[in-house]
Structure formats: structure tokens, C-alpha cells
Amino acid sequence: MTVVVVVVDDAVAQQQQLPPGHGQTVCVTGAAGYIASWLVKLLLERGYTVKGTVRNPDDPKNAHLKALDGAAERLVLCKADLLDYDSISAAVDGCHGVFHTASPVTDDPEQMVEPAVRGTEYVIKAAADAGTVRRVVFTSSIGAVTMDPNRGPDVVVDESCWSDLEHCKKTKWATIFLSTDQNWYCYGKAVAEQAACKVAKERGVDLVVVNPVLVVGPLLQPTVNASAVHILKYLDGSAKKYTNAVQAYVDVRDVAAAHVLVFESPGASGRYLCAERVLHREDVVHILGKLFPEYPVPTRCSDEVNPRKQPYKMSNKKLQDLGLQFIPVSDSLYATVKSLQVKGHLPVLSKDIPAELNGVTA
Ligand SMILES: NC(=O)c1ccc[n+]([C@@H]2O[C@H](COP(=O)([O-])OP(=O)(O)OC[C@H]3O[C@@H](n4cnc5c(N)ncnc54)[C@H](OP(=O)(O)O)[C@@H]3O)[C@@H](O)[C@H]2O)c1
């Protein structure tokens, strides 16, 4: 399929009440992923033509993308791998914007670091080479922000914070991945973000970064991604206890909205922390247990020795200032579980939530 790029002057588009993305083509890497699927949906709703990269366009796991409103007319799936420059370049060719969300999500250093870093460098270079891209939005992570053992307990985590790379290599992050003693995911994301900034500066590319915290909320894709496992394990009996740990959460629909906001806001620059709030794991299981008492949600902490970890303070002011109103985390957790049920990842044990529990808040 050939993408025809029609550029409409902003003022003309406004006068004709055309959607903001009308006549603009954007590339979304890793389009079938959890976050990217919502991003593609939102971009299509806003009138953009989307070139979404996937590793195999014929894979049935992309069917949810093809079913999105507007996809038949304005979504093109391009075969691309992060380690193949030519495939990335072909996907970015002719685009006005690029959203680079594709990344391995693993703690295996060999699978994580090189595709994250080299793939990101390729995307920025391809955007520079294309000559038509006005902004690249890179999906980084909270993992590039908070892994700093020297940050004081009263420091408000904001966009100025960076993870300590040596600390990432030495510690595990008790959130998604519990299988190794090193935190190569956070390391890989931090190094990829640094590489993105370096190449963007060298090549004169306008780069804006979104740093989501742990993302929850409904799934569009048929498979269970890593952050959904974080919730699923508290419902399907695989986690018998919760850890003594804190974590910031945000809804996937807000993450998609944040990406579009920073792309469409001419004055947006630098990093944007995308977080609703920080919760202790005890708070998460409390919300889940109240909303879904039919599941074996753990009630005991695995650490009965140390004091309860205190949530750190985190600022989401930059995105709020752009107009983003965050979905409350309790609503996101509810939507996550309902979605896991609908997609067949969790058996439906009871249809109704007791009326008195509907108002559960974090
Ligand atoms: N979910 C979270 O809690 C969270 C929080 C902060 C930041 N993030 C970041 O958000 C982005 C999306 O994450 P997600 O949660 O949506 O994960 P996801 O569902 O696993 O999506 C990752 C996507 O990247 C693609 N990908 C991985 N390696 C690739 C490669 N070598 N070449 C081409 N494509 C490749 C995957 O394609 P395949 O399906 O073919 O493997 C998949 O479509 C990532 O950059 C992640 O680091 C996620």
C-alpha cells in the first residue's frame, strides 16, 4: 500500500474543522505492543495516517490493530526490526513524526541492551535522514529515572532525576522482573535514552521523551505484556504474598495521550514523567482485594522484618501543565482486571462487584 502524504496548513485545517492529524503521517515503532496499540488507536482517532512497525505484518497477533477505527484507510503495517537500519528507515520515510516505543522488555542483558540502544540510535538517524520529521517522541521509562541509591527520602522525583547505571547493574528491581540479580532493563532504558539525546543533538532532531512509570489499564493486544503480569500474578494465585516495595502507576490510555500531547504541543521539550501516583504493594492488593474479592489476592507481606517502605514523592506537573488529567489508579486497576477477563487471561468468577465497593479509591 502506498502512503499519500497530504500536508494541510494548520490554520486551514482549523477553519475546515479537520482533525489535528489530518494530512500527517507518523511512524509508531513496535505498533502491536501494549502502549503502542493505544497510541496507534489514538493517532487514528485524531486523523493521522500511521505507519506502524511490527516484526511480521502477517502475524495474527496484529489483528487488533487492523480492526481499529480508521485502520483500513490510514494504518500501514511495515515489517521492521530495531537492529535493521534499512527496515527502520523505510518505515520512517515520508513521516512528519516518529513515536519510538519498540523495545525489548526483559532483564536479559543480551536481549535488552543492544536492541534498546542501537535500535534507538537507528530511529533517530532515520528521522534525521528522512528530512520530513518535525519531532521524535521516545518512550523511555521510570527505570531511567528512579534507580538512584543516593536520592534522599524527601526528594521529589522529577524530570531532573537519572538512574545510577552502576546501581542498575548491581541490583534487581522488585517490580516486574524478579528473575535476575541485575537490573538490565533499567540500565538498557537509561542508556538508550542517553543515546537518543546524544544522536538527536548531533543530527539536529527535535526529541521529546516520555518516561512512563509502571503502566496498567486495559489491553488491546491479545497477549499479556510484562506490566499486566504485575497485576495478574496477584489474582491468579501465582503470588502468595506481596513484596515490601513501592511503585508508581499510570494508565495506558494516559500514556498514549501523553505521547500525542508532547508531539502536538509545539513548546514541549525534554523529558515528561508520566505517573498518576506512587503506591505501596499493600495498597495495590488492598484495592484489588476489595474490587475483586473472588480472587486469591494475597493479604500478607513477604517481608515481616523490615519497616514498611515509604512511597517516594513524584511530580507529574509537566504533563499536567500540558493539560493531561490522569485517570485514578483504582479505576485503572479495575479496568486492567476486567480486560484480563475479557481477553481470557483470567477466569470470570463473579459478575457483579458489591455496590458498596464501587467507590474504592487509592
Ligand atoms: N509497560 C510498562 O509498564 C512500561 C513502563 C515504562 C516504559 N515502558 C516502555 O514502553 C515501551 C512499550 O512497552 P510495552 O509495555 O508496550 O511493551 P510490549 O507490549 O512488550 O511492547 C514492546 C514492543 O517492542 C517490540 N520490539 C521488541 N524488540 C524489538 C525489536 N528488536 N525489533 C522490533 N520491535 C521490537 C515488540 O515486538 P514483538 O511483539 O515482535 O516482540 C513489541 O511490539 C517500551 O519502550 C518500554 O520500555 C513500558
UniProtKB/TrEMBL annotation:
One of its GO terms (molecular function) is oxidoreductase activity, acting on the CH-OH group of donors, NAD or NADP as acceptor. Its EC number is 1.2.1.44. Belongs to the NAD(P)-dependent epimerase/dehydratase family. Dihydroflavonol-4-reductase subfamily. Pfam families: Epimerase. This is cinnamoyl-CoA reductase. Coiled coil: none annotated. Residues 26-268 form the NAD-dependent epimerase/dehydratase domain. The keyword Ribonucleoprotein does not apply. Pathway: Aromatic compound metabolism; phenylpropanoid biosynthesis. It comes from Oryza meyeriana var. granulata. CDD domains: FR_SDR_e (cd08958). Keywords: Disulfide bond, NADP, Oxidoreductase. InterPro entries: Epimerase_deHydtase, NAD(P)-bd_dom_sf, NAD(P)_dehydrat-like. It comes from the Eukaryota.
